[in-house]
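Progress against Task 2.4 (sequence-to-structure conversion) is shown through the following example record, which the project officer requested during the mid-term review.
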Amino acid sequence: MEDNFKMVAKTFYGFEELLAKELLQLGAQEIKPGNRMVSFLGDLGFMYKANLCLRTALKILKPIHTARVQNEEELYQLFYDFPWEEYLDVDSKFVIDSVVTGTLFTHSQYASQKAKDGLVDQFRDKHNERPSVDLNRPDLRINLHIQDDFCTISLDSSGASLHHRGYRTLTNIAPLNEVLAAGLIQLSGWKGNSDFLDPMCGSGTILIEAAMLACNIPANINRKTFAFEKWIDWDADLFEKIQSSQLKKVKNPSIQIKGSDKAPSAIEKATINIENANLSEFITLEKKDFFQVEKETKGPLHLLTNPPYGERLDGDMNALYQGIGDSFKQSFPNTHAWIISSNMEAIKCVGLRPSRKIKLFNGKLESRLLYYPIYEGTKKIHKLNRE
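Structure tokens generated for the chain above:
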């Protein structure tokens, strides 16, 4: 279709295939996974839908120009010559976010400064006035990506990272990023068709993302704003139509989603966040130490949790992880048990051999998502239903 244009969805390392699958299900065209990103084609309405619905995307960028630049003066000239009046006027506020790799450009902030100079000088020379820079609430967020001498100028349609879902107002120590939580759930293979448990739930992010997936609720339905709402071509009626269409697909799952934590403050925060997400009827919380939790489900249980890594907490992590493994064996028969951790030493103390080990990053921490299938009886006799 002629109205289609190229977009780039940014994501975390290891989530590229998940995001490509989400885009395919949503109706994107010409999907191409890359490094921490997936490119695709879609129209204006699809850009709105991608921002609203994608669970594993951090940003949706719209590339508008590419060029070769050998030095800072060529970068300045590129921005000076570009037809910015199609996107901005002299009263607009903007910001330029730069990512540079290679040897020609080595400082992203300096690249942003030269690009900004070219843009504002164009307006000043034409109108004797210029748009202003606003780091916090710009009318237009411009993304500049330079790899060696190849420069891409994009418009950031999302604004703040899409992990800012809008429901989480309170967090515990080391909260899990919402996009990371959504990706962990998908990587673990859970599709909302079996009971779900997070026995160390913290402020409730995994539980909320699981409930939103099970209910087919758009990931960013609670978000207050997207950057595209300030664009010149913003179509409020189209966005409302897309939002209404997606909300008609929401369903009521017939499963239990439960969470527990030993800290009263964690349960309080999780309760408030769950209420903010309008998911109180789908998630049950309990103040309980992990080692007191037992499987209550008769059928298969899906367990996914983010235990302490030891970076911010004192205590014997090896003993904690040994206890986790013992609890899995003793209290969770017929369970798909998954944990994510960056503590490679403590992981060895779980005492179970993971059948899957997936490399990920939690922030800057290299981590592993580990799968422990816990069988009912012996492994030779019983095979776990992977439904």
